[in-house]
Amino acid sequence: MDLKLNFPESLPVSAKRDEIMALMREHQVVVVCGETGSGKTTQLPKMALALGRGRINGGGLIGHTQPRRIAASSVAKRIASELNTPLGEVVGYKVRFQDRLGPKSSVKLMTDGILLAETQTDPMLKAYDTIIIDEAHERSLNIDFLMGFLRQLLPRRPDLQVIVTSATIDADRFAQYFASRKGPAPVVQVSGRTFPVEVRWRPFEESKDADLNTAISDAVDDLWRGGGMRSAGDILVFLPGEREIREATDHLRKHLSHQPTLRDAEILPLFSRLSQAEQDRVFETGGQRRVVLATNVAETSLTVPGIRFVIDAGTARVKRYSYRQKVEQLLVEPISQAAANQRSGRCGRVADGIAIRLYAQTEFDARPRFTDPEILRSSLAAVILRMKALHLGDIEQFAFLDPPPRKAIVDGYQLLNELGAVDEVNALTPIGRTLSKLPLDPRVGRMIVEAKARGALAEVMVIAASLSLQDVRDRPIEKQAQADQAHKKFDDERSEFSGILRLWAWLSRSRGGPTNDPLLSAWASGAKPEGADAQPSLRSQNAHLSPDKRGASRDGLNTLAKQFKKPGASKHASVVVEAVHKLSNRQYEQVLKESYVNIRRAREWRDIYSQLHTVVAEQGWTLNQKPAGYESLHLSLLAGLLGNVGCKNETEDWYLGARGIKFLRHPGANLSKKPGKWIVVAELVQTTRLFGRGIAQIDPKWLEEVGGHLLKKQLLEPHWEKKSAHVVALERATLYGLVVYNQRRIRYDRIDPVLSRTLFIREGLVGGAYECKLPFLAANRRMMREVLDLEHKSRRQDVLVDDSLIEAYYDAQLPDDVFSGDTLERWYRVESKRTDRLLFLDRESLMRHEASGVTHQAFPKVVRVGGVDCLATYLHEPGDSKDGLTVEVPIFALNQVDAGRCEWLVPGMLKDKIQALLKSLPQRPRSRLVPIPHTAESMAEVLSAQGTFGNGSLTDAVVRLVREKTQLDVKAAEFKADMLSPHLLMNIKVVDETGRQLGMGRQVATLKANLGGKARGAFQALAQLKLGTPPASQASANEQPSSPAAGELKGVGAPSASAVSSDTLVNSVPQWDAQTQHTEWSFGPLPELMEIRQGKQSMVGFPALVDQGDAVCVAVFDEPDVAARQHRMGLSRLCALQIKDALKYLEKNIPDLQMMSVAYMPLGTAEQLRAQIIAVAIDKAFLQAPLPTDADSFLERVKDGRGRLTLIANEVARTSGDVLVHFTKVQRKLRDSKALGPVCADVEQQLGRLMPTQFVRDTPSEQLAHLPRYLQAMVLRLDKARNEAARDALNTREVQRLEQAFYRLLSQRKGQVDDATKAFRWLLEELRVGLFAQELRTRQPVSVKRLEKALALLQA
Predict the structure, then answer these.
(1) Mean pLDDT in the chain?
(2) For the chain, how are helix, strand and coil distributed in percent, rounded to 5?
(3) Which three-class secondary structure state does DSSP give residue 1130?
(4) Considering the entire predicted model, what is its pTM?
(5) Half-sphere exposure of residue 934: CA atoms within 13 angstroms, side-chain side
(6) Kind of pairing between the strands at 327-334 and 678-686
(7) 3-state secondary structure of 1015
(8) I want to staple 40 with a disulfide (CB 3.0 to 4.6 A). Which of 34, 371, 617, 883 is the partner?
(9) Distance (Å, whole) CA 343 – CA 295
(10) Which of 543-552, 638-647, 725-734, 1187-1196 is the least confident region?
(11) What percent of the chain has pLDDT over 90?
């Protein structure tokens, strides 16, 4: 063919034609730097034809690469037009989805990815004799790899011509990169055919009132100001992303609407996600002025017509791969100088241009000259995989223009290892070789390979094709809500990938025609919502459209509506239609448009699927005919997305991903419900935040199945497990730091049998955690318990041998293959037939030496306490609440427990307790007792003698022996009982009749205070079985609580009538009719005590008369003190019943009662005062010791006391009147001394304690006579307090400190007081007299120190 090659003289590159062609003849590589509009892109292929290259001249193809498909096709059309030849004859193009290359074509326009793919089938590129790499400045990953590949190829292909060209290029660097024997590659500089561009610098500062949008509005006003020819033309604004474009669009429309001349200007967005129709609007010329808001897609390749002005924000979203987070990041960054110049060059194509840069020139000068190459900010997994498939050697040795960093190479190998494409030595695996043949991202390819094995190839191919392009669903800015509503029919509850299959099925079935494909039916049926069983008409489907659109759809698609309108069909008819006739192209495009599906991208999706189908067919794979289940499908996808797994946070709405990253669910996720806890995402992209796109819910168990080679497993805490009878460990597995499972039980004997055997012996056999019926085990443990009991009794830790010795015994006897319960039982069944008493231990083997002195006499199993034989247990565990001796006391015997007996413990512990007591003595007596252990042992021998042990107080007994040995007057108070170890105090455990613990402690008084009422009720329940009545105790309010009724005894632990045998009580006392109330002594002799028997146990009871108001009855008590108080009140009542006439006279003739009643009014009534005086008089007249015990002595006592009653009553009345006189004086003085606040308050408290309502009856007789002196001391104190305030305050603090300690002691004792406690209470009153009214003198010597010592004795 005779071609006529014309080189337009208007193009600057034509002037350099001869120089370029000469260099092409002489050099294998030529670098052409041509500015925008120089014509290099269209003229360089014609120069190669003129030099005799190309098929038309008998050579190979002239390959011409472009970075974008649209650029490849448009350049091919322009060159064919200049050659006056049809497209495809001499000049053709091949891009991802189209091939317009004829069999005799000489010039082949293509994307750099197409040429890179051909290196797999044609490693030497023999089909080409010339290769032109255009737009090399973009430095994409494909371009860098191609240049490195060509550099290695050129020495082997000397006939291959390479031309590298771009508008802005680092010429010297490329020249050095392609240097040969002749030196660096030649560089040709070609000027551009552009008009002058004026660059204006308009930096702005972000503030509350001004932002980027404000700066853009001001720049638009500046460019269009005046309305003349210089202001004519469109404006191209460069912004970093879609969000910024949307915000600027809204701001500009609002801003220009206020300007009459500019309100009709069009504001057009331009970014990659726009629909085809919206993109076409940008390239239409004519009409109103336009402002085009674009991302960096408009920097190169695309030429927007009519642009005279450029506004450059100076930023762009740059794709960078994070090696730490393993995610692609789209961050807003300042652009390079080269990119800024490319943007400025967009406005000098049609006339003089103006470029406004919204940043300072100094900032521009500080920016890098060129954008970082993609190889420095991308994942290298695909590059490494391709290099290994082409046998290009190690990537670290490959001649890249900019070698990638080491961490990028390591990351690439890690991803390939994750996909199973390389092994431990980074060699290709069979999966890797298969992946290298698939023209896809390695992740997507891995999904397809896994899908082939799992029967999900058809589904994954559809999804893989979808992931390779932009989403086919459109969301126009002004109709986002309508688009979302239209897309809901494709949404799935759990997986966006399932939604992709539904969309594919909808696209296939909406066209119509025969649709009997079972896969499409299965995919489409998933869109049917639960409970939906009716299909609406086409009008219902198009409800989201505007009325005019719905009308157009109705008019144009009547046939389609008839096909869709079927009773009983799915609600989403467009998903599961059964069309009969195939729609025309126009009808089909209308259906897609109404559902907001991009027609061009839908076709691209189908083309990619066809290419994948071809690749799969070349591999000999067949598609599955049956639909894959959810698990099989997502297991296949998961194989390629193991690094994109996430687990939802328990409280917040974010997911924790691999390597500790946190990401959010993309707000545009096409799911009908929120995803579950575990998800996998198709990609992780970071914009303002890290988002996951393409979400699917997964089961964490799947990670083990497809990602087992990546799981990092840890075995923690190997231990013996009693239930399963073997050693287990807790396994924890993580995937890139994400916990897949935790605390999983794993049999450890299969991993480490040696350690398992050790743990089995230590914890199972020796530690007692192994239970079985083998005879040796129970016998050995019983023997160990016996020896351990000896340890506790002797309080020694050296009797039982160490566990290590027992462990060594089993270790020597058991073979190596015994490490669990089942292996032991199998071995024992066989070996026990050969050896008698196999593995049995004897006492000698278990004892380190004999525990001398540990006998049943020294450490009895039963201790007699409170007249009852109580079970005794021993424990040697310092710090434990039961350390030492614990005695189990039944509740009914508690009140009869003698604290003195508890001091003695048991004979075996007596020596240790005496030794501890001797060590607590002061230094002087202690020095005469050395050596203390020997002295304690000799004393223990003396006190252990028959008839001495357990009698009285141990402390008193030791005091006597110490006095004899030291000849010193040692007092019992000198023994510091608080220094004794707790195990040297008897631990009392109180139980009820069922053995349930009611209380426990080492202080008998505290136990009696807490449980005394329950104990008394239980005891009386036993005693009343003899008397035949319920407990008759009717104590007054200030006495101990009355006994419970018989029906309540069981609840407090007292034995019921059925629980006591007929021989419970012995006939050691007369048989009383306890139900009878007595008004005279008619019940026979009343003994001081009686014996009560409970089975073999014998206790002592104390009978007493109980006051019942108008009579008395007989009751039995378990404590002599309580019995004495009740008996005294009962006897007083019985005496009063015998002298009723005398009492009536006495009530009317008490002297000065009326005058005393007036003084008594602040405390009570005259009747209360009269009753107290009479009660005290009766007590003094009739109840002097010894008390009567039978009827004769009682009558004699009544006869003797009758004559003295009146005289005694008058004496009591006189004393009471004297007290009340002083009481009145104190009250009067208090009213006059209110200014003395603290003093008055203290006096009022003291007065309240001394003068209660029942002061005559409650105050002991010997103390009643001293009350006037105590009251007089109060008056004197109030008189002195005005002049001696400081002294009074000091004395008050001393007294109050002692009183607080005393009443705290009473609180601890729960009201249990003895004679010493009562005496101390009156010593406090004497101390007040001594401190505040010394002139009244005290009854006995008192001081603060004396009372402190006395209190210390009480506390001890």
Answers:
(1) 83
(2) 50, 15, 35
(3) helix
(4) 0.53
(5) 5
(6) parallel
(7) helix
(8) 34
(9) 11
(10) 543-552
(11) 25
Distance from C-alpha of 1156 to C-alpha of 1148, rounded to nearest angstrom: 14
| Tokens (6 digits) for 148 | 């490195």
CA pair distance 1269, 435, nearest whole angstrom: 113
**Neighbouring C-beta atoms of residue 10, cutoff 10 Å:** 9
Q: Is 904 helix (H, G, I), strand (E, B) or coil?
A: coil
For residue 1038, pLDDT beyond 60: no
Half-sphere exposure of 1318 (CA within 13 A, CB side): 9
Band the pLDDT of 823: cuts 50, 70, 90: very high
Which tens digit of pLDDT belongs to each residue from 219-246?
A: 999 888 755 445 678 999 999 888 789 8
Residue type, 535: Q
Size (the chain), residues: 1356
Q: Which residue type sits at 1117?
A: F
Residue 228 tokens, joined:
């003349």
Token pair 């204006």 in the structure block, residue: 200
Q: Specify the pLDDT at position 3.
A: 81
Beta strands per DSSP E along 407-558? none
Alpha carbon separation from 1151 to 351, 876, 1212, 1272 (Å, rounded): 137, 70, 10, 24
The model's confidence at residue 527, banded by pLDDT at 50, 70 and 90, is: very low
Q: Is the dihedral of CA 1021, 1025, 1026, 1030 positive or negative?
A: positive
Cβ–Cβ under 8 Å, residues 357 and 364: yes
Supply the DSSP symbol for 62.
E
For 876-956, strand residue ranges (E) read: 884-890
The residue type found at 206 is E
Distance CA 501, CA 465 (A): 11
Does residue 939 have a pLDDT over 70?
yes
Sign of CA pseudo-dihedral 614, 619, 620, 625: negative
Question: Sheet containing 1090-1094: which strands, arranged edge to edge?
Answer: 1090-1094, 1097-1107, 1112-1117
- Lowest-confidence pick of 337-351, 568-582, 1126-1140: 568-582
Q: What are phi and psi of 383, to 5 degrees?
A: -65, -45
pLDDT digits (tens, 9 = 90+) for 473-503: 888 878 888 888 888 888 888 899 999 999 9
Quick: pLDDT tens for 200-209: 999 988 877 7
- Residue 1093: φ, ψ to 5°: -115, 130
Reduce the DSSP state of residue 308 to 3 states and report it: strand
- 1025 burial (CB, 10 Å; 0-12 / 13-18 / 19+) is buried
Burial class (CB in 10 A: 0-12, 13-18, 19+), 577: buried
* pLDDT tens digit sequence for 1284-1309: 888 989 999 999 998 888 888 887 76
Tokens of 117: 């793919």
The pLDDT of residue 405 = 84
Measure Cα distances from 918 to 796, 906, 948 in Å. 22, 18, 19
Q: Measured between alpha carbons, how far is 1034 from 1053 in angstroms, rounded to an integer? A: 21
Contact residues for 808 (Cβ-Cβ < 8 A; gap 6+): none
- Model pLDDT for residues 686-700, shown as the tens digit of each residue: 877 889 888 999 999
| CA gap 679, 698 in Å, rounded | 5
User: How does DSSP classify residue 766?
Assistant: I
Helix (H) or strand (E) holding 662: strand 662-665
Question: In sequence order, which residues have a C-beta less than 8 Å from that of residue 1211 and are 6 or more positions away?
Answer: none
| Residue 706 CA from chain centroid, whole number | 29
- Closest alpha carbon to 1226 in 1274, 1194, 1183: 1274
